[in-house]
Design goal:
Elements (H helix, E strand, L loop, with lengths): L5 E6 L20 E2 L5 E6 L4 H4 L7 E3 L1 H8 L10
Antiparallel strand pairs: 1-3, 1-4, 2-3
Amino acid sequence: MENNRTYTILNISDLSNVDFSQVGETGADTVRKSIDRTQFVIKYNSIPTFISDGTVTPIEVLNYSEVLALMATDKWSINEE
């Protein structure tokens, strides 16, 4: 269930350090990236080892409602009026 997952914002420079077998995305081409392409988001049920061992340091850790609010901002979505 999506709303029980943890969502984590990471720097795009950490993309190559993500073990996609531990997260809800299948690869670098499936992650949601910020509009300026400097950050991306991953989702998971259990903390991935690349985070728990310090290989990757999250910018922000969010729950489902928090990530929905973030994805609606100008940093993550283009406002097409």
